[in-house]
Structure formats: C-alpha cells, structure tokens
Amino acid sequence: MNTEVKELGQPTDHDYAMEVNVVNKRKESAPTIPSKIPVGKKSKPALMEAKAVQYNADEVKDCKEKIRDLEKCNKCLCKENKELKERIREQERCKMRWRLKIKGLTEEKDKSIRSNVIQLFNKIAPDMEAN
C-alpha cells in the first residue's frame, strides 16, 4: 500500500484520496473593486472595455439624433403627402365636373369638336345663349 503525506502532514491510505485545503491566494495588496485601480495602471482588457462602452454610447447618441431628424422629416413628408392627396382629389373633382361624354359624336383628328357640341346644346336647349 502506498502512503502519501497530506499537506497537513498526515499520511493517506489511498493514492486517489487526498485532503485538500483551500488557501486564499489573493494578495492583500490587490484591489478588489475595479474603480480603485489607478487610471494610468488599468489593464488592457479594462481599457478595451472602456473604449467599447464609449463607442457604444456614442453610437446610441448618434442613433437618437438620427431618429429625431427622421421624425422631423417624417412629419414634413406626412404633411406634404396629405396636401398632395387633397390637390389630387380636387383635380379629380374638377375633371369629373367638366368631363362630358356624348354618345354618337365621334372625334376626328385636326377638327375641333367644340362647334359640334355647341350645335348639339343649341338643339337641346335653344333658349340658352352661347357665351
């Protein structure tokens, strides 16, 4: 049987059994809070993390500015869209008001149909004067 000496100095009967004592290996001089690390002596990962946080903060700020600008632009475009729709509706109303379809009256190229329409209206309503 192989006997080994424990860390405390007591022998063990088995190769696979050992008594383990956990020793606090933290140095008393090392700070436990990252904010206590002097600014000039930060480790590279801490500097990289600080830069990443700053970069993300700047990106968020830029995105918020872009969102504000887009919201302003969206308001202007919505207003313009509403005005254009109203203009189209008004033009369609006028177009429909003046559109007249006369069945049986054919249009011919290079000939004004206006005189034919006036003659037709004079036959329909002879008491109205032509302007």
UniProtKB/TrEMBL annotation:
GO MF, any single term: ligase activity
Domain of life (superkingdom): Eukaryota
Keyword line: Coiled coil, Ligase
Coiled coil segments of this chain: 67-101
UniProt entry tagged with the keyword Ligase: yes
The protein's name: Tryptophan--tRNA ligase
Organism ancestry: Eukaryota, Metazoa, Chordata, Craniata, Vertebrata
